[in-house]
Amino acid sequence: MSLPHALMTSLLEKSCSGYDLARRFGKSIGYFWQASHQQIYRELGRMEEAGWIRSAAADDGGKTRKRIYEVLPPGCEELRRWAQEPVDPPNLREEFFVRLRAEAVMGPLGLEHELERRMGLHSLRLQAYRAIEQRDFLGKELSREATIQYLILKAGIMQQEGAVAWSQEALRVFRAWAAIGVLG
Amino acid sequence: MSLPHALMTSLLEKSCSGYDLARRFGKSIGYFWQASHQQIYRELGRMEEAGWIRSAAADDGGKTRKRIYEVLPPGCEELRRWAQEPVDPPNLREEFFVRLRAEAVMGPLGLEHELERRMGLHSLRLQAYRAIEQRDFLGKELSREATIQYLILKAGIMQQEGAVAWSQEALRVFRAWAAIGVLG
DNA sequence: CCAACCATGTAAGCGGTTACATGATTGG
DNA sequence: CCAATCATGTAACCGCTTACATGGTTGG
Fold first, then answer.
1. Which of A52, A130, A158, B162 is the right S-S partner for A75, CB 3.0 to 4.6 Å?
2. How many CA within 13 A on the CB side of residue B156?
3. What's the CA A59/C1' D27 distance, rounded, in angstroms?
C-alpha cells in the first residue's frame, strides 16, 4: 500500500483538490498507479487526520465545495522516509497468459482476435507516451526533475514496445497454424 | 479475479493437491500469477462446491491428509468460456516509480543503491528464465502446447531484459549526477 | 432548460495478505 | 531425537472495486 504516498507526491508537485487528483491519476501518474475517486477521498481524509496534509476551501468565494489539499512538514518527512524503503519489483499478474496457457492445454480457442486487439491497445498507449515524450522532453534542456520524469516515461515506452513486439511474434505463430490447419 | 481459472488450468496440466498447486504457483505459473496456500485452499473448496473440480484422498494408504484434485467437465466448460473473454492488459503498478517521482520533487534521496539492487533482481530472474528456456525449449521440436508455453516464457524474458536495460540507463544518469555533484 | 461536468461522498463485497494453528512424515 | 518439510486449514484485516447518491456550476 502506498496510495497516500503517491497522493502526497502528486500534491507536492502541485497542491489541488481530490477531484483534481483523481483526474491526474487518470493521466501521468496514473500510467503506473491508478486510483478511483472513492479511494482518493478516503485517503485524503485519513491523511488529514494524521496531520500529513491540510485542506482549505478553494478560493472561489464559496461557490463550490472544492477543497485544496497541501502537504505539511510531517507528510514530507513521512514521504521521505517511505521513498527510501526498498521494494522488490512486482511480478506481473497477466490474466491473458493464464488464458493462453488454458488454450495450450485445451486446444484452439481462437485467441487471435484477442491478440490483435491487445496489440492495438499497446500501440495506442505507445503512441500516447511518444506524444508526451515529444511534447515535454525531446529537444530540450532538462532539469534534474524533468530528467527523472523522462526516465519513468521511458520505462513505459520500453514496456509498450516490448508488448507490441511480443504480440506480433505471438500473432505470427498463431497465423501460421491457422494457415496450415494445425490443431495439435 | 481469475484464480479459480488459473488453478483449473494448472490442474488440467496435471492433477495434484492444494499443496502441490501452491508450490507450482511459486514456479512456472507463478511467474505471472501468484497465490498463497490460504487462497488456494479456499478457492479449491469453493470450486469443489461449485462442481468444477472433485477431490479424492491421495493413494498413500491414508498416511497423510493429502487430497488430489481433478477438473470435472463443468469446470472445463467454464474454463473454456472464461478463456475466450477479452481482457485489457493491466497497466503496471510500480511503487518504485512513485518513489522516483518523490525523489524528483524532494531532491536527492540516494536511490542509487536501490536501483542497483533491483537491477540485480531483474538479472537473476532473467537468468532463471533463460535456464528454463535452455532446458525446455531450445534445440527441440516443439508441440503446439510447448510452443505456446515458450511464447509466454519469452514474454517474461523480454520484460526482464527491458527492466535490466532501463535500470542501467537510470543508473548511468544517477551516477553522472553523483560524479559532478549536481543537486538540482 | 437541459446536458455535461464539477465535486464529494456512503456502503457493500471481494480478493489478497498476514498471523496464527495443527499434526504427520521424512531425513540426518 | 530434532529439524525440516509435508499438508491443510481458520481468522482478521485492508485495500480496491462497484454501485449508489447528492447537489452545484457551466455552456449550448
1. A52
2. 31
3. 22
